[in-house]
Amino acid sequence: MLRIFRWTAIGLAAALIAGWAVLWLRPGSVSEAVRSAGMQVGGPFSLLDQSGNPVTDASFRGRWMLVYFGYTSCPDICPTELQTISTAIESLGKQATQVVPVFITVDPERDTPAHLAEYVKLFDDRLVGLTGTPQQIAAVARAYRVYYAKVTSKDSAAYFMDHSSFIYLMGPDGTSRAVLRQGISPPDLAETIRRRLPGAG
Is residue 58 part of a domain? Predict the structure, then answer.
């Protein structure tokens, strides 16, 4: 029985790795790979914003969302991607009112609402920071197919979070419209958004 369980676990892990390999290696945009693989991204969630107010996925209905998962102690990738989001939103001009940038922490132990409030204002006043219980974060991460894990040092109690790094563009109805790889430029991100907004040519 133990052997069966072990091989089942290995099989599930391999399937997950293969799924992400499709996203990274398939030619064309990541969003096309997600759709062709039949992978649903996004779903209901219940969290707290940086002011401590309850927020659900329904709170954003009628507006586009740019969602990024990370954590405030992230030394490089998260600040870079959040700056990309901020710059792209700024370049949209008046159309920016249709889009809400959202930062969801994968480190709820340290990222309290108050901590998030200090962090998100470093990038953009429009950026919404979301946190919750570990169970709530795990649920929203599963919905968006986000990988994250706590990594501790052998010589210290300090830790960092290993996590996947995608930007999710969600439509006004809450469905995924595009999933963008880490490193997309602000102009390309802005153009990806602009093409999907009402009135785009």
Answer: yes
